[in-house]
Amino acid sequence: MKIIIAPDSFKGALTAQEAADAIETGIHKALPEAECIKVPMADGGEGTVRSLVDATGGRMVTVPVTGPLGQEVEAGYGILGDGKTAVIEMAAASGIQFVDENTKNPLVTTTYGTGQLLEHALDHGAHEVIIGLGGSATNDGGAGMARALGVRFLDADGKELPYGGGALGRLATIDATGLDPRLESARIRLASDVTNPLTGPQGASAVFGPQKGADEAMVRTLDSCLAHYAAVIREQLGRDVEDTAGAGAAGGLGAGFLAFTHAEMKSGVQIVVETTGLTSKSMGADYCFTGEGGIDFQTKFGKTPMGTAQAVKAASPSCKVVALAGSVGDGIDQLREVGIDAVFGISPGAVSLQEAIDHTAPNLTRVAENIARLIS
Ligand SMILES: O=C(O)[C@H](O)CO
């Protein structure tokens, strides 16, 4: 019997690799002969770098870069097992965790450090880069990222603008002549956590600005700065990035990548499926065990268990897909439509969140073993 084990991480408890190990232990207690193939998964959100590094036998690299407030921070990214693909989560360099209640200020925060990570990856031989967008402290449209890669953003007097989305209203000229030429040929795939446009009521500033410290007046300022930025990009670079789905991700970093590189925007789980080779590994599979910390109807909008189920069933239509979750929310019946045949909560009873987190591995093992006993 061939069983694919392809969970996401269980946030705060286990990496995807650790979750897969715990599930495998349970299955082997009941089905010692089963051929288990472990594929740590992710959907582009937090944990994606770790899962892809683990799934491909890659390695982590840590680099000092400029944090969102201009401070030095240590940021990690992954080089995958093929040695030529880098995976960067923008939040590692420019994330919300680097600011606090007193310092968060999306008028001034910058994605410069994300650009430095990308440059470091190119310097170390990456030809393909996967960038996870989301969890940012920034609202600068990716101008900081582009600046780190050689673009100059000038005001009407020809002076370089300071960091931050609040300065973009004064943008007069984009000088992209110094843009790193390696970006011409690098394949960049953006794994976005949202599909919002750059500006407007559904845009980066209106929807995500408040969580980064913007009040109503600041949201209006930031939104008009990004609209002006998009207009200058349109005029001077001939690219229209304002309304593209995902352009508003990570404070408009999506738009920055679309404006200054040949990046393609894709669903995060799709990128992970492609990179791990999940579909080909699933040929002839009888069962698939997937899972995530929390599962509910939203899982069908592109989260890991859904993307996993679709990839596995594309390879083996008769494969049964079982999802294990720390918490099971409303509407899980809807998940059958997207290929998840059954969902099991792993908690043994009413316990505190901390207890549930602490016991995630043995709980996964116990439930996987019991399901495997039914199968056997
Ligand atoms: O970083 C952000 O702005 C949100 O996570 C949406 O991408």
Attribute tags:
Glycerate_kinase; alpha/beta; binds (2R)-2,3-dihydroxypropanoic acid; 19% strand; 2 domains; 13 helices; transferase; Glycerate_kinase_sf; 5-stranded parallel β-sheet; glycerate kinase activity; single chain; 6-stranded mixed β-sheet; Glycerate kinase, domain 2; 376 residues; Rossmann fold
Q: Can you walk me through this structure?
A:
Keywords: Kinase, Transferase. One of its GO terms (molecular function) is glycerate kinase activity. This is Glycerate 2-kinase. This protein is an alpha/beta fold and 376 residues long. It has 2 domains: 136 residues, Rossmann fold, CATH 3.40.50.10350; 221 residues, Glycerate kinase, domain 2 (Alpha-Beta Complex). Helix content is 34%, strand content 19%. It has a 6-stranded mixed sheet, sandwiched between helices. The protein has a 5-stranded parallel sheet with strand order 2-1-11-12-13, sandwiched between helices. It has a two-stranded antiparallel sheet with strand order 7-8. Bound molecules: (2R)-2,3-dihydroxypropanoic acid. The site of (2R)-2,3-dihydroxypropanoic acid has 10 residues, from loops.
